[in-house]
Amino acid sequence: MDCLFCRIIKGEIPSNKVYEDDKVLVFLDINPNTNGHMLIIPKEHIVTVDEVSSSLASHILEVEKKMHKLLTEKLNCKGLTIVQNNNYGQEVKHYHVHLIPRYTDDCWKMAFRQDNLLDVKEVLDKLNN
Ligand code: 5GP
Ligand code: ZN
Question: CA-to-CA distance for 47 and 126, rounded, in angstroms?
């Protein structure tokens, strides 16, 4: 299997590491949206959220908090947007969480919106039945 992020974990491809422990690696995104945009990846090769165990999820949450503190203290960020794509929008098929520090309140909004949205009642109906 030729996975870009597994190769980064093995050190076969260089990355700008920010944090590492036995479960995850955190490194700077090669094409950052803002200064300090980083990715948290698990060391085990998994692809989507469905494969994340509860213990890995809670570990990633702790690392998110640690990175939030670091970004606030060292880069003076004022906010943090956390996003994670599954299948659609997922360029690299190795699970990763984007941490995008925010310095102003105007540089990123959810850019996509589906055309012809269903009525909210129809959506609830589908979800509940
Ligand atoms: P996705 O679109 O899959 O949610 O995000 C993939 C992210 O990985 C993108 O933001 C992209 O810039 C980043 N990326 C792709 N290739 C590399 C690489 O070789 N090194 C690093 N550091 N980031 C990468
Ligand atoms: Zn991988």
Answer: 27
